[in-house]
Amino acid sequence: MLYYIMHTRYGWLGLAGPREGTVSSLVLPCNSRDSTMRNLIHAGMPEDAVESVDAFSGIGAQLRAYLEGEKVDFVCCVDVSRFSLFEQAVWDVTRNIPYGKVRTYKWVARIGTCQKPGANNHPMS
Question: Which residues lie below 8 Å from residue 54, measured CB to CB, with a gap of 6+?
């Protein structure tokens, strides 16, 4: 597992993933580098993970630009394999919300409702 902790004007942001360029955990800015590290470990990163600036330099630059107010089309691989099917479905719906748009939980639940014949129609809520 690799990780990268970077300082932004909002605080310390952390990324972790199983291989270069693949993100499986993101910790939003914290007050200190240590608290960001603790949050990455709490999110499932092993304590023996290896820090690598190069592994996340592309997504790091994209996140920095986004936090500076730029519109960013994020280009990275997100590993959702450790998430439940429900969490993966929520991710699939929310990642398609256009930049600058806001959606309610109700909207996400309605869009995420399984529409396949014979399937359980349990909305995501």
Answer: 20
